[in-house]
Design goal:
By secondary structure, the protein is α+β, with helices and mostly antiparallel strands. Among the domains are: about 60 residues; about 70 residues, no CATH class. It has 4 helices and 5 strands, in the order αααβββββα. The longest helix has about 130 residues. The chain starts with a helix and ends in a 20-residue tail after the last helix. About 10% of the residues are buried. InterPro entries: UCP028069. Keywords: Coiled coil, Signal. This is TonB system biopolymer transport component.
């Protein structure tokens, strides 16, 4: 009986020892598992932190880009407002120019007939005036008529040239002027110095200083002058060329008629 009990105790003791030994093995396995899990958790946390850092950097970059875009938008808005103001101003100017163009067209309708009348009056004046450069002046009138029919010449340029022609006619009426040319005397061409005192007197003297003539606007003829006028006319011609000082000279005068 006692031996049986002892064996039972021994068996129980062995069973307990084995149980404790088994428990230690299990505990060691659990610790290793926990350590692995901790390592995995730490590793996962580290990866997550890397992702977080990367996302943060990306968000900062996006924020910077956003701020840049906003700044560019504000700049573009200011610039667009500026350009729009320029466009509005140009549109106002174009509208003003169009009104001026319309006004010019209406003005042209009135000024073109006026220019034709001015040319006609100029031609009549030249024909009635003393024949100073008569061929040259009539040729100028013909040029004016020619440009009036030339579409490549603007209305303003046509008007300018007509005014220039009138100014040239005014210049003939002032000062002492002389020039050389040929005078038809009884069918013979004689080389002469023409001289005119404005439009008050128009005379001619042969280059040999032996003969002189005066234009009679009433008869449209040249009349020979007496010898007493040869010296004064020579002096007057020299004065016109600034070859001698101005002085009083005695010359005959025929007044020119005015164009009607």
């Amino acid at each position: 009986m006692t031996k049986i009990i002892d064996r039972t105790k021994i068996a129980a003791a062995l069973a307990g020892a084995l149980a404790m030994a088994g428990s230690g093995v299990v505990a060691a396995q659990d610790l290793a598992t926990l350590q692995k899990e901790d390592s995995r958790t730490i590793e996962a946390a580290a990866k997550s932190q890397v992702k977080i850092d990367s996302l943060f950097e990306q968000s900062q970059d996006l924020l910077g880009e956003y701020r840049t875009v906003v700044a560019e938008y504000e700049n573009l808005k200011v610039y667009n407002d500026h350009v729009q103001s320029l466009v509005d101003d140009q549109e106002r100017q174009l509208a003003s120019l169009q009104k001026q163009i319309d006004g010019v067209e209406r003005t042209k309708q009135g000024i073109v007939p006026l220019m034709y009348r001015m040319i006609d009056s100029l031609e009549d004046f030249v024909k009635l005036d003393i024949p100073i450069h008569k061929e040259q002046r009539l040729a100028r009138v013909e040029r004016l008529r020619s440009i009036m029919g030339n579409s490549s010449v603007s209305t303003s340029e046509q008007f300018r040239q007509i005014i220039e022609a009138y100014q040239a006619e005014l210049d003939y009426g002032s000062g002492l002027i002389s020039y050389q040319g040929n005078l038809d005397v009884n069918g013979e061409e004689v080389a002469v110095d023409f001289f005119h005192l404005g439009r008050v007197a128009f005379l001619a003297q042969s280059l040999d200083l032996r003969n002189a003539w005066i234009y009679n606007n009433e008869t449209d003829e040249w009349t020979a002058l007496e010898d007493e006028y040869l010296g004064p006319l020579t002096t007057a011609i020299r004065m016109s060329r600034k070859q001698t000082a101005y002085d009083v000279v005695k010359l005959p005068i025929f007044a020119a008629e005015n164009a009607e």
